[in-house]
Amino acid sequence: MTRRRLDDVDRAIVNRLSQDARTSNRQIAAELGVTEGTVRARVKRMEEKKQIRITAFTNIDRFRDVCLAYIWVEVERTSQVREVARKMATIRELGFVGEMLGRSDILAITMVRDHEHLAEFVYGQISSIPGVRRTESTLGVNFVKHDYRMARIVQ
Amino acid sequence: MSNPVAIDSHLYLDEVDHQIIALLREDGRLPFRAIARQLGLTEATVRGRVRRLEDSNTMRVVAVTDIEVSGYNMLLSVGVQVENRTPESVARSMAEIPEVFSVNVVVGTHDIEALVVAEDQAALHTLLSDRLAKLPGVRRLTPSLAVDVLKNQPDWVPL
């Protein structure tokens, strides 16, 4: 799964786009002293190779009464981890699904309104997946940092 | 991810705003003209709406770089137990470390849940033992390694 690293020009373009991805190719080209075609082609290539993803984020502070919930899932049999994780990855409300070593088998992260909403979500969407043995949830009270310019871009 | 909750009243977002945000989530480089055509609006309207969403700090459109492409081969969740210091202030100290890319103060077995990245095992050891474990107030770290990330697309972040 190792992907090619970025060269200096790629990095300069990404640096500009990670501040504001609405900046035009023409402007980036002018700032970096390359042609507009170069910028366009490189952005396209980096997106196609899943090295970068250009997307909109909304500010969680603009939403009323929401917090992040960490949901740890333990499966019945270790051989079921992959299948359960795959099913969980299709749940729209989950922003993160990872197969883990150590604390539990799977970690999922989502946004909920309160304890009641969390319980409802876990009961309705997670516990019902075949193979899920038990779940343990943690509710966030203060979301201090999230570097949204960094993520695992799934192929 | 959809937003299941109402937006705070100080910036009222209508259906058109939500449609614009949805299109930009799919493709952050979609030209204003294309957005306008898809939603049956003028280009000037779309431009104005996007500017308002950005200026009010409600939405940002940015490039996200894959962590592996950035040279980080390991991703871990780290639960933190705190002593003699508030979880908030320990969380703020942790947030200053670039490899700590997500930090949340939580209620539960741990006081803080963080997501961290490391280049390799040696860098991970340094990050955990020398930097995080030695922060004032950190009592215990409970790391867990992500062996496969199947999904990592949070739409909700503190901007």
Automatic annotation (TrEMBL), chain A:
<dbReference type="GO" id="GO:0043565">
    <property type="term" value="F:sequence-specific DNA binding"/>
</dbReference>
<dbReference type="Pfam" id="PF22482">
    <property type="entry name" value="AsnC_trans_reg_3"/>
</dbReference>
<keyword id="KW-0804">Transcription</keyword>
<dbReference type="InterPro" id="IPR000485">
    <property type="entry name" value="AsnC-type_HTH_dom"/>
</dbReference>
<dbReference type="InterPro" id="IPR054609">
    <property type="entry name" value="PF0864-like_C"/>
</dbReference>
<dbReference type="GO" id="GO:0043200">
    <property type="term" value="P:response to amino acid"/>
</dbReference>
<dbReference type="Pfam" id="PF13404">
    <property type="entry name" value="HTH_AsnC-type"/>
</dbReference>
<keyword id="KW-0238">DNA-binding</keyword>
<dbReference type="InterPro" id="IPR011008">
    <property type="entry name" value="Dimeric_a/b-barrel"/>
</dbReference>
<dbReference type="InterPro" id="IPR019888">
    <property type="entry name" value="Tscrpt_reg_AsnC-like"/>
</dbReference>
<dbReference type="InterPro" id="IPR036388">
    <property type="entry name" value="WH-like_DNA-bd_sf"/>
</dbReference>
<protein>
    <submittedName>
        <fullName>Lrp/AsnC family transcriptional regulator</fullName>
    </submittedName>
</protein>
<feature type="domain" description="HTH asnC-type">
    <location>
        <begin position="6"/>
        <end position="71"/>
    </location>
</feature>
<dbReference type="InterPro" id="IPR036390">
    <property type="entry name" value="WH_DNA-bd_sf"/>
</dbReference>
<keyword id="KW-0805">Transcription regulation</keyword>
<dbReference type="GO" id="GO:0005829">
    <property type="term" value="C:cytosol"/>
</dbReference>
From TrEMBL, chain B:
<dbReference type="Pfam" id="PF01037">
    <property type="entry name" value="AsnC_trans_reg"/>
</dbReference>
<dbReference type="InterPro" id="IPR011008">
    <property type="entry name" value="Dimeric_a/b-barrel"/>
</dbReference>
<keyword id="KW-0804">Transcription</keyword>
<dbReference type="GO" id="GO:0005829">
    <property type="term" value="C:cytosol"/>
</dbReference>
<dbReference type="InterPro" id="IPR000485">
    <property type="entry name" value="AsnC-type_HTH_dom"/>
</dbReference>
<keyword id="KW-0238">DNA-binding</keyword>
<dbReference type="InterPro" id="IPR036390">
    <property type="entry name" value="WH_DNA-bd_sf"/>
</dbReference>
<dbReference type="GO" id="GO:0043200">
    <property type="term" value="P:response to amino acid"/>
</dbReference>
<feature type="domain" description="HTH asnC-type">
    <location>
        <begin position="13"/>
        <end position="73"/>
    </location>
</feature>
<protein>
    <submittedName>
        <fullName>Lrp/AsnC family transcriptional regulator</fullName>
    </submittedName>
</protein>
<dbReference type="GO" id="GO:0043565">
    <property type="term" value="F:sequence-specific DNA binding"/>
</dbReference>
<dbReference type="InterPro" id="IPR036388">
    <property type="entry name" value="WH-like_DNA-bd_sf"/>
</dbReference>
<dbReference type="InterPro" id="IPR019888">
    <property type="entry name" value="Tscrpt_reg_AsnC-like"/>
</dbReference>
<keyword id="KW-0805">Transcription regulation</keyword>
<dbReference type="InterPro" id="IPR019887">
    <property type="entry name" value="Tscrpt_reg_AsnC/Lrp_C"/>
</dbReference>
<dbReference type="Pfam" id="PF13404">
    <property type="entry name" value="HTH_AsnC-type"/>
</dbReference>
